[in-house]
Amino acid sequence: MSELSALLYPQTVAVIGASRTPGKVGHDILANLTAGGFTGRLLPINPAAKEILGLPCLPALQGSGEQIDLGVIAVPRPLVEAAVEDCLAAGARAVAVITAGFKEMDAAGAALESKLAELCHRRQARLLGPNCLGLINSHHRLNASFAGKMPTCGNISVISQSGALATAILDLAAGRHLGLAKLVSIGNKADLSEVDLLSALAADDQTGVIVAYLEDISSGDDFVRAATEASSRKPVIILKSGTTEAGRQAATSHTGVLAGADIAYGAAFRRAGVIRADTFEALFDSATALAMQPLPRGPRVLIITNAGGPGTMAADAVEQAGLQVAALDQNTAAALREKLPRAASVGNPIDVLGDAEPERYAAAVSAAQDDPAVDAIVVILTPQAMTKPAATARAVAAGLTGDKPVLAAFMGGEEVMPGRAELVAAGLPDYPSPERAVAALKAMHDYASWRRRPPRVVTRFRVNRRRAERIITRRRRSGHRQLGEVRAKNVLAAYGFQIPEGYLATTADEAVEAARRIGFPVAMKVVSPDIVHKSDLGGVKLNLVDAEAARDAFDLMSLRIGQRAPEARIEGLYVEKMLGKGLEVIIGMTRDPQFGPMLMFGLGGIFVEVMKDVTFHLAPISEAEALLMLKSTRSYEILEGRRGQRGVDLAAIAHGLQRISQLTTDFPQIAELDINPFIVGEIGTQPMVADARITLEKVP
Length: 700
Known about the structure:
The protein is an alpha/beta fold. Among the domains are: 294-451, Succinyl-CoA synthetase domains (Rossmann fold, 3-Layer(aba) Sandwich), CATH 3.40.50.261; 465-577, ATP-grasp fold, A domain (Dna Ligase, domain 1), CATH 3.30.1490; 583-696, ATP-grasp fold, B domain (D-amino Acid Aminotransferase, Chain A, domain 1). Strands 9-8-11-10-12-13-14 form a 7-stranded mixed beta sheet, sandwiched between helices. Strands 24, 25, 26, 27, 28 and 29 form a 6-stranded antiparallel beta sheet that branches. Helix 7 (220-231) runs parallel beside helix 9, helix 13 (358-370) runs parallel beside helix 14 (389-398) and helix 19 packs across helix 20 (547-564).
């Protein structure tokens, strides 16, 4: 935290552009600093005022002899550069530029923004903003923002790229009676970015949960490193907006087409252990649970309810989230039968009935906490005539031991409000519906699983890197980006993939001779740097069973390709051994401009073409992560083998993904790679590359 101590823990703060007029930014920042109870020195700077809000006002920092830690600048854009220089001359190690109108406005603003960053860098000071709301540190009584009143102290810290979202977060936190530790609006990120704040808050003892709203990420590698380090210490929850499909039009491979900016961010978040919030609601639903409750030790959830319908809703939500409806231990069920009415259900959900007194809830919660088969508890209450929401909340809270997470869903409005207030006071997160409670619990479970993950071990296979390098270098020198099937397979063979025997033929006689040498049946495919999708142009023939079929296929294919792609340069036709039976899968890589190589896996055929049942992961990848990719597809049961069908060699697919990971990290020149299909069989059989494509990055 030492690098940002001047920003987050300043002792002397100057407000350049302090104003006597309420409603102006310079006035509201100074008013927030005084109202928030800041105990350090405050220096309002305004050449037209002697005092503001009872504080003596300086006409300028320059020549005053004052030394400051933090300068907060709220003056018109033409005056900002001079204000920054004055702050730096006064010893500031942090400058927050609230003023807008920089790179978000025009080229002149962008140039000025860069100049401000350079000024601060030269003096070893950090710049927040410009175009930001400011910052808050409730534990330091510092509200150097124009956001409103100081939040109560808590353990949730917020990073926001949007000032408006930051104010909404403050309001939501107040409405939920949630305390905040710090809130930092990073604005245009001319210097300080989410990476710097993640690192600082990871080391901050007052921060227990980090929440962020981001529109873009400055550096993919730096973000993954900082987020991984932060997640290893405390939960990080991010709401990411601004994900688009930009760039997909340039993709030539299945992998590139199926990938998009949103998928890249998702892959980066999974690698780093970041909890991704899909909505603004989910952002604080997850933060509330993680700030108040311990992590679950497993996926088994017990539901306690006073109504059957909501209990069923919760059970459905648990199953749909990939969690488990816990099976109660026999001793727990027996104990509950003694304490609950005969009409009550002691299965899961536990239905304490609509006339439940607080004592029934307390008994059920106590039994659930003692049950070794239960990892988490969801308590549901609906307002019925006999229901006592406040007393029930107190009874539930009084019996908690704190070793298992307990989340509440007090459903309704006015009648359950007293109960919700009691839950907040007791540190129990409350949600308006069972589904939202379960979604927050799912986030807790996923984060806990990530924390318990085994150490990442990235295997380095023995490969012929020089051979691959020669092929790639020659192709780039020739000005071609497509390696084509033959060269792509040669690169893959250098990295340990099994390639069926094949030969390039330029005449029908050569094709027949190649087929005889290989042994029938064979496949025949056109080889051209200008043809990416061979099948679309009739450039693939399969199951050629004799010499006549091979000759006819060569002649017909040559004729059709000449008609359908007259400008294409044809290097020949590739004659290759037909592969035996196996399951067709696709494995590949596309290089994201922010996060680098993204590996892809999916089943072939309709699963990738229509259902788009694929999964992505950042390289480099471990074997455990590769296997997790397989398990995360909807079609995983086909790989495993179910209902009498034998499964395939999962480890062989995982090793294929690892080898692609090694290849594409070794060669950043590779933009896209597809092995489609990759034929895999039962355990012990050798997977084979049936078709492959590699696209290189453009030569600068």
